[in-house]
Write a structure and sequence with these properties.
Elements: E1 2-10, H1 17-26, E2 30-39, E3 50-52, H2 55-66, E4 74-79, H3 85-101, E5 106-109, E6 114-115, E7 119-120, H4 124-137, E8 140-144, H5 145-152, H6 159-169, E9 176-182, E10 189-196, E11 199-206, H7 215-230, H8 233-254, H9 266-269, E12 278-279
Parallel strand pairs: 1-2, 1-4, 4-5, 5-8, 8-9
Antiparallel strand pairs: 2-3, 6-7, 9-10, 10-11, 11-12
Helix pairs in contact: 1-7, 2-3, 5-6, 7-8
C-alpha cells in the first residue's frame, strides 16, 4: 500500500516527514513524501535555517506524481504541518484527485497548530482553514488536546471530555477522530482516545517527563498504518500508542532530545510493552 505524506521536512532530527516516513516504510508501506517546509532542524531549538516552500512548488511535486499515473495505488493522503494557507488548499485538491482515482483512499488530517507548552504557532488564517475546510474534508482527524479544544470549542480535562470533543469534530459518523495527550485520573499517566461513530477507546501509559518533538507526527503515521492493516481502531490505537511510548522511553533513557526512530526501530514493529485499548463507549 502507498501513502502520500505532505508535511514538514527537517535535515536534522525527526519531525514531520522525518518522523513519519521511516516508520511507515518499516511497516511495509511505500511512501510519497512531499515537503511543505525545508528546515535544518525543528524550530523548538530556538534557531533554524531553511524556508517555507511556496504552495506552487508543493503543487508541482504532487502534480508530477500524478503524471506517473499512480494515483489509483494511493491508499491514504496524510497531511501535517502546512507552512502556509495556500498549501492547505493544495492538499485538499490533491486529496480530491486521489479519491477520484481511488474511492477507497482516506484523507488523514493532523491539524498541526500548536500545543499547551507553546500555544498556537500558526496564524489565524491557517487555524480557520483547519476548522472550516480541512477537518470537515477529512476521513480521519488526529490532534492533541490543545488543537482539539480549538476545533471543538470544548475544554478537555478528562477522557470523557475528549470523547465529547471528538463527537463534535466528527459530526459525520464516518469520520474517525483521535485525541492525544489526554488528562486521565492518574496524574502520572497520560491517555489517548479514539472515537469512531458510537464507539470509543482509551489507551493509558505512564507519563514520561520529556517533551518529545515529532512524537505526534510518528503517532499519526503509525495509527494510520495499523488501521490500514487491521481496520480495527482499538487495535490500531494500542499498537501505535505502545510504539510511540517505546520510542519516547528509548530517547529519554538515552538522553536525546530527538525521537530515536532509527536506533529504536524495533519499537515500531513490535513494541516491547503493549498497552491495551479499553473500550469506554
Amino acid at each position: 500500500m502507498t501513502i502520500l505524506s505532505i508535511q514538514s521536512q527537517v535535515a536534522y532530527g525527526h519531525v514531520g516527514n522525518a518522523a513519519a516516513v521511516f516508520p511507515l516504510q518499516r511497516l511495509g508501506y511505500e511512501v510519497w513524501p512531499v515537503a511543505t517546509v525545508q528546515f535544518s532542524n525543528h524550530p523548538g531549538y530556538g534557531d533554524w535555517r531553511g524556508r517555507v516552500l511556496p504552495a506552487s512548488e508543493v503543487a508541482d511535486v504532487i502534480e508530477g506524481i500524478g503524471e506517473r499515473g499512480v494515483y489509483p495505488q494511493c491508499r491514504a493522503i496524510l497531511s501535517g504541518y502546512l507552512g502556509c494557507l495556500e498549501t492547505g488548499r493544495v492538499v485538499l485538491g490533491a486529496a480530491a484527485e486521489i479519491k477520484a482515482a481511488n474511492p477507497d483512499a482516506l484523507y488523514v488530517c493532523d491539524p498541526v497548530m500548536g500545543d499547551h507548552e507553546e500555544g498556537f504557532y500558526v496564524g489565524d488564517e491557517q487555524m480557520a482553514f483547519f476548522k472550516s475546510e480541512a477537518v470537515p474534508s477529512a476521513d480521519m482527524v488526529i490532534a492533541n488536546t490543545f488543537e482539539m479544544e480549538f476545533l471543538s470549542g470544548l475544554a478537555i480535562g478528562s477522557s470523557a471530555a475528549a470523547v465529547g470533543a471528538a463527537d463534535v469534530v466528527g459530526r459525520d459518523a464516518a469520520r474517525m477522530v483521535v485525541v492525544t495527550s489526554v488528562t486521565v485520573d492518574d496524574a502520572d499517566a497520560v491517555g489517548t482516545v479514539a472515537v469512531a461513530g458510537t464507539n470509543a477507546w482509551l489507551v493509558t501509559t505512564p507519563r514520561i517527563p520529556v517533551s518529545a518533538k515529532g512524537a505526534g507526527d510518528t503517532f499519526t503515521a503509525l495509527f494510520l498504518a495499523r488501521y490500514l492493516q487491521r481496520s480495527d481502531p482499538g487495535d490500531a490505537l494500542a499498537l501505535a500508542v505502545s510504539s510511540v511510548f517505546g520510542l519516547i522511553r528509548a530517547g529519554f533513557d538515552g538522553g536525546t532530545r530527538e525521537l530515536p526512530v532509527v536506533a529504536a526501530q524495533r519499537e515500531i514493529v513490535s513494541p516491547a510493552r503493549l498497552f491495551p485499548a479499553e473500550k469506554i463507549r
